[in-house]
Write a structure and sequence with these properties.
This protein is an alpha+beta fold. It contains four helices and eight strands; from the N terminus they run βαβαββαβαβββ. The strands form two sheets. The chain has a four-stranded antiparallel β-sheet. The radius of gyration is 15 Å and the shape is globular. The termini are far apart.
Length: 170
C-alpha cells in the first residue's frame, strides 16, 4: 500500500486556497472527497497505515477529552527548508493534542522523528514554486479565524486522498 495516514485538524476556511495550489503543483493529491481537508494542521503523521479498532478508540478518547477551540491564522512564515505556512494562535491546544497522540502512539513519532519539536502549522506552499512570504500575504485576507471542532484520519496517496475517520472534539 503506497501512501500514509495523518491525524489532522481541518481548516475549511482555507481549503479552496490550499486545494487550488495543490492542484497546480501536483493534481494527484487533489482529493474528490468533500470532507478531505487540504488545508489542515497535522497533529501526528505519518500515522498507522492500518489502525486497529483499539487504535481508533484511543484517538477518540484523546480527542473527546479536548474541547473545541477557536484560533487565528494571521502571519505567513517560512521554515528553514522553504516551506511557507501559517502558525495558529493560540498554538497550545494543537501542541497538547499532538503531544498526547504522540505519547499514545510512540511507534509513530511526529514527522517520522525528523522534527522532534514539531511546530503547529498549516502548510500553504514552498519557495521552490516561486511563492514567498510576501506573495502569500498579499493573496490571503489575514487573519483567518477558525474553530477546531474535529480531528480527521486522512489518507494521503496519489489519486487517493480521503478521510478514513473523524472524531469530534469535546
Amino acid at each position: 500500500m503506497t501512501g500514509h495516514s495523518v491525524l489532522a485538524v481541518p481548516v475549511p476556511e482555507l481549503d479552496a486556497f490550499v486545494k487550488e495550489r495543490t492542484t497546480r503543483y501536483d493534481a494527484s493529491f487533489a482529493s474528490t472527497d468533500p470532507e478531505f481537508g487540504h488545508a489542515h494542521l497535522t497533529l501526528l503523521g505519518p500515522w498507522l497505515a492500518e489502525p486497529t479498532p483499539d487504535d481508533l478508540a484511543t484517538v477518540g478518547l484523546i480527542v473527546a477529552d479536548e474541547p473545541p477551540f477557536e484560533f487565528a491564522l494571521a502571519e505567513v512564515r517560512r521554515f528553514p527548508l522553504g516551506v511557507l505556512y501559517l502558525a495558529p494562535e493560540p498554538e497550545e491546544p494543537f501542541r497538547r493534542l499532538a503531544a498526547r497522540l504522540a505519547a499514545a502512539f510512540p511507534q509513530t513519532p511526529p514527522y517520522g522523528g525528523e522534527f522532534p519539536d514539531s511546530i503547529p502549522h498549516l502548510t500553504l506552499d514552498h519557495t521552490l514554486t516561486g511563492a514567498s512570504v510576501e506573495s502569500l500575504q498579499s493573496e490571503l485576507a489575514l487573519p483567518v479565524r477558525a474553530k477546531a471542532d474535529r480531528v480527521d484520519l486522512q489518507w494521503w496517496a496519489n489519486h487517493d486522498c480521503h478521510v478514513r475517520h473523524s472524531w469530534r472534539l469535546g
